[in-house]
């Protein structure tokens, strides 16, 4: 996320604040708000995600389409955004999602971007992952020519479209063989998460279950260098007796300035071990729903479904409009359907902007509902 020193998130109770966080309530309220077009565009111009792991693409694209907003400002932003802080990838996700729905010249505009745009490789990789091949496969000569021009080092990520094209073009084959470009993005963030998970075990010596005694000793001292690693081990392999230590871990995370990450690991552990500490954590888990770090939001909903299933109706309803696909899929599977919410699930099933996973979950839920009637 790109933030100025004096910038801050607007309150969640405001429409702008809810949209900045990708909350379902923001999407619902926008449909009745005359100021919604500018609020939506503001969320596209500026990347409000806490990390590139967070998603706003489908969420904002759906609002642009459903509110019938012109796509010109989005396409213009593609040419001015930089990717040093993830802003270009943020706008690209919105444009790519709109393209899946065949929206307002977006397909041809993104194809044109591959011809002349500075981040053409990122754009081509995104559309190849999300669009039918006949929408982009004929761009192979353009891509090969731009690689040969030497405007950027000729490195490519593996996968679509590059791996398939390497079999058909020598220049792409050479660029792919040179290895991936050094760009910090989603893959690197996921690798860092994996490294942290491994460090949790290495730091405490021995396989996870054997590390439990050591983890409990370390967790008693929040000032130790391995404190976070010990919490990870307890969250994944501890039992109800470790609940108080995990609860203390939430408080420790709260004391870390400008850091909204890691709560999902602790919350997941609390939901797994249960007990009094997990119940006492529920107010904190409910409040974490409003974090701008939306990638972890599905964990909070899963925890509530485990710890207080009868109290989740509101969150499940809101989740049908959430920015994160995992949240929408959970909501689709667990929400109590009435006529209005069934129409929403049908909408998710049929919407080409929606991810394949959520569409499949919606189709399955509707089939189950139909079978029991």
UniProtKB/TrEMBL annotation:
Annotated source species: Dactylosporangium darangshiense
Record-given protein name: HEAT repeat domain-containing protein
Domain of life: Bacteria
């Amino acid at each position: 996320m790109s933030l100025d020193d004096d910038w801050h998130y607007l309150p969640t109770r405001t429409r702008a604040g809810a949209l900045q966080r990708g909350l379902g309530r923001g999407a619902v309220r926008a449909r009745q708000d005359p100021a919604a077009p500018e609020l939506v565009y503001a969320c596209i111009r500026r990347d409000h995600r806490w990390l590139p792991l967070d998603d706003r693409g489908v969420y904002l694209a759906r609002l642009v389409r459903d509110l019938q907003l012109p796509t010109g400002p989005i396409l213009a932003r593609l040419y001015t955004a930089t990717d040093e802080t993830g802003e270009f990838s943020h706008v690209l996700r919105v444009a790519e999602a709109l393209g899946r729905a065949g929206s307002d010249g977006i397909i041809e505009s993104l194809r044109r971007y591959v011809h002349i745009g500075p981040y053409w490789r990122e754009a081509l990789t995104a559309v190849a992952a999300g669009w039918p091949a006949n929408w982009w496969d004929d761009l192979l000569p353009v891509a090969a020519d731009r690689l040969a021009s030497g405007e950027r080092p000729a490195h490519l990520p593996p996968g679509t479209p590059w791996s398939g094209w390497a079999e058909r073009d020598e220049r792409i084959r050479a660029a792919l063989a040179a290895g991936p470009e050094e760009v910090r993005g989603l893959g690197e963030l996921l690798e860092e998460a994996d490294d942290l998970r491994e460090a949790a075990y290495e730091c405490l010596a021995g396989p996870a279950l054997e590390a439990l005694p050591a983890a409990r000793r370390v967790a008693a001292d929040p000032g130790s260098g391995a404190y976070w690693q010990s919490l990870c081990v307890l969250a994944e392999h501890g039992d109800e007796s470790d609940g108080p230590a995990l609860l203390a871990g939430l408080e420790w995370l709260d004391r870390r300035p400008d850091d909204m990450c890691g709560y999902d690991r602790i919350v997941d552990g609390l939901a797994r071990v249960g007990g009094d500490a997990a119940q006492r954590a529920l107010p904190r888990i409910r409040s974490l729903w409003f974090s701008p770090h939306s990638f972890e939001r599905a964990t909070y909903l899963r925890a509530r479904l485990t710890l207080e299933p009868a109290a989740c109706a509101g969150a499940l309803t809101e989740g049908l409009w959430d920015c994160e696909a995992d949240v929408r899929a959970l909501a689709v599977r667990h929400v109590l359907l009435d006529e209005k919410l069934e129409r929403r699930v049908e909408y998710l099933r049929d919407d080409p902007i929606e991810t394949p996973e959520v569409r499949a979950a919606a189709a399955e839920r509707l089939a189950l509902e139909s079978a029991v009637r």
